[in-house]
Input
Amino acid sequence: MLVGTRLEVSGDLRLFMPTPVTGEQRLLIDELGDGPGARLLLVALADAEPAALARISHAMRAALQESDAFEAVANGEFDQEAIPPRLLPYRYLLTSSFDATPLDAAVLRAALGERLEDLASPAGGMVEDLIARDPTLETLALAEAWQPSQQPQRIDGVWFDAAGRQALLLAQTRAAGFDPDAQQATLDALRRAFDDARGDGDARMTVSGPGAFSVLMRGRTAGEAGTLGGVATLGMIVLLLVAYRAWRIPLLGALPLASAALVGLAAVSLVFGGIHGITLAFGFTLIGVAQDYPVHLFSHRRPGVSARQDVRRLWPTLLTGVVSTCLAYLAFFVSGVDGLRQLGLFTIAGLLTAALCTRYLLPPLLGEARRDVGDSALLGRAWDRLAALPRPRWLAPALGLAALGVILLSPRPWWENNLAALTPVPADLLARDAALRGELGAPDVRWMLVVAGADAEAVLVREEALRAELDALAATGAVDAYDLAADYLPSTATQRARRARLPDRDALETALAEAGAGLPFRADAFAGFVDDVQAARQAPPLTPATVEDTPLAVTVENLLLRHDGASVGLVTLSGVRDADALAAFAAAAGDDVRLLDLKSASESLVVAYRERVLAALGVSILLLVATVAIALRRPRRMLRVLAPVLLSMLAVVALLHAAGVAFNLFHIVALILGAGLGLDYALFFEHAGGDRGDQVRTFHAILVCSLSTLLVFALLGLSGIPVLRAIGTTVGLAVVFNFALALLLARAPAPREAAPR
Output
């Protein structure tokens, strides 16, 4: 009931990001979730004539502007209604048209002459309603200024690519880019708008951007995991049926694992109030070791001995393995990452539940054992041949030295710091995204300038001072274009200066009379214009707070933020070609301007993340060794249990490193799981002692455990998704090494007299 009523699954990747330390890292975390780049969808319409594509683009923009899923939609259309009526008088404070030239009779005479030409042209109908109130057409100038700074060509009034074959749109979503549930609803709304606009035509729509990729990643991961999971489940059922020849065994074996999942979900729901989707995916992977617990009980059953007696005999060894594995996962609690804390709680609660379920729930459900796997002739012969294999003392040191040699001497890079390398998004889609960004002039996803100030006004003033140097950078080709908040909302000081230069009513009416002399305009035709100018002369300057709930607010909010107790202006850049010139500009501009490299910020965050996790894992390993020491007490027994585990991890790391694999967080998680499996194998081989019957039963149990685990993770290793492939390959190799080394190093030799003749 608790899981059903309280559990909420989150898709916010920031839960799995470490606590940022630097200002760049904090800004990166904010931008990942709610930044304009993370909420931008790039839409391309193709496979129809340009006129048909333009018609679809017009219809889609109109429909999407009415949708609550989108904050803004742009396709190159000029929207005369983009400026709400209450802001119309402010057009003379927001544009720079009269900064150098006053609004006098000469300017008005030229504007009125142009309007006469406009009215006589085919486009006259577009401006006829504007002229009386806006003879200088500042409304259109403002609408043009609010378009992206670098735009594609227009065909039939909307954006097209350079080849003229694709109509282009930009849509900014309300939902965070890495919230796949909300982005799915947004994409559904986009698809409905396209289907309605296309009608029976053959046009095709392509959508790109972080939101589209997050939905794709979730769907692709879930699809592959579902398919591979189905095959693995079927394989495990067949394996258990063959191993135990009883139809009830697969059902009973699933009880501890199902109980572990439910209790883990309930624990996370109770403590955190929700769970991340990654926690679910990794959590079910990590508690997969719990499937080994009932297998040990099933394989150690003996006719004439109750299941309660069998489980009591196994319990100390099983409990040692469980406690040691749980201690390893304590590292997640000190990682400083909420997502990993959720994962640690889910796994520890689940493993303890599975162990208790195996200890107390399963024995009453098991009937009397009908066979003893230790009496199997086939299994016995296999065991005897394995037991006869030589076990030279030099084997373990030689393997350890060889692995260390590969690890220490290989020149290959160790770590994968690029988060983009882990994405399951196909390379062709990433290339298409880059191409669309180039066509649309969308902001660069890596570079931006950050302007800091005590408040919004200070930032806007500073941005206005930087504009000339930014124009110079664009003129030299260092960047194609830039966008800053001051281009949309000038500083209060600039607005006041423009307001002071506006003529009063008498002066403006006199200038209008002089400008209109001899022209076919009525004397009172521009009364609305005069009223707007006088309203602008009396109006207080616009601020970020006073433009809320207007089209201007979306852009300003994206480019002007409150961050770390101060105001921050983001100068987004398009077509960055010379990062060194940008860096030199930022360095010369002063301490309040810096160039933010989101790639470097993300990599530094990953490095800090990894260092914290590795340090915590080091502490966990010490706790694990201490637990084994307390349980086994004798150094020789400790060495026989720990040596296979440590050597296996070294061998896996060396093999992957020699193969050119760069390690990431998922490899670390997989190594933890591999260590837990190896500890389980070594403990039970060591527990079997010198009794041949127990050795054969343990061999059977660990053979079933390792085959079932290898089946699951070998399938994951075949996945085309980097995350699943990293986990599958690492754990699969760990299973092979753990089984072989535990067999060679952890088991005691069988007495010669106990062997069958």
Q: What stands out?
A: Residues 384-409+634-757 form a domain with the Multidrug efflux transporter AcrB transmembrane fold fold (CATH 1.20.1640.10). Residues 752-757 have pLDDT under 50 and may be disordered.
